[in-house]
Amino acid sequence: MIEFQSVSKKYSDSASTLALADVSLNIAKGELVYLAGPSGAGKSTLMKMVAAIERPTSGRVIVNGQDVSRIRKAGIPFLRRNLGLIFQNQRLLNDRHILANVMLPLLVTGAHAAQAEQRARAALDKVGLLDRALALPMALSGGEQQRVAIARAIVNRPQIILADEPTANLDRAAADKVIDALHAFHSVGVTCVISSHDDEILDKAARVIRLEHGHVVGGAA
Ligand SMILES: Nc1ncnc2c1ncn2[C@@H]1O[C@H](COP(=O)(O)OP(=O)(O)OP(=O)(O)O)[C@@H](O)[C@H]1O
Description:
- By secondary structure, the chain is an alpha/beta fold.
- The chain is built from 7 helices and 10 strands.
- The protein has helices at 43-50, 76-81, 98-108, 113-126, 142-154, 172-187, 199-204; strands at residues 2-9, 20-27, 32-36, 58-63, 66-67, 83-86, 160-164, 191-195, 208-212, 215-218.
- The strands form 2 sheets. The protein has a 6-stranded mixed β-sheet, with helices on both faces. It has a 4-stranded antiparallel β-sheet with strand order 2-1-4-5, covered by helices on one side.
- α3 (98-108) packs across α4 (113-126) and α3 packs parallel to α5 (142-154).
- It is globular.
- The two termini are 13 Å apart.
- The model has no long low-confidence stretch (mean pLDDT 92).
- The site of adenosine-5'-triphosphate (ATP) has 13 residues, from α1.
- Adenosine-5'-triphosphate binds at residues 11, 13-14, 17, 19, 37, 39-45.
- Residues 2-221 form the ABC transporter domain.
- It holds the Pfam family ABC_tran.
- GO terms for molecular function: ATP binding.
């Protein structure tokens, strides 16, 4: 479902270092994979390439049979419709209640308000936050806000979830709830790629792809 073929990435403003260096890996449909590695190892870069937010300097990235390293701009919205992105810089809109935040991805793709609301409520129910539907984001804890971000990411029923350090800055109980919410989507067949620094989570994981200085040092096969 996700294949990296000898992918290297050099950001133009970083003179010599490679953010990813000759990365080859396969992630099968329905798999749950963790990305681990120290800060700067290339985890975010790898995820951004799956979503065509960044392009490889060399090599190919195949998602669902499509070479997204060479995707045209016009094809990007279609690619992203199949992806649920939980990235650190995607904040919730603080002036809208969480139901409205979760409805937004549906409304921008043309769904009717009533249908969008029904699906957003179902998504909030799946992450255990339906009773907070009309709260503003600021009234929620960090972990709850992260679960709203998960609800927003899955409301379009994506085939793949990419979660970049979804448990960063959360305490154990909140982190476990976020991971449980992600695992619930994996258990219904969604392919999940989650980056984490959390040893307690990584120790229990079936598969961990480890990155160091842009190189895969474990778990690629
Ligand atoms: N937009 C950018 N422009 C220039 N360099 C970048 C950019 N994004 C990342 N880098 C560099 O690429 C390398 C890999 O960064 P990346 O963010 O992918 O690592 P990471 O493993 O996700 O780190 P963290 O755990 O801190 O999020 C780092 O050296 C980083 O400084």
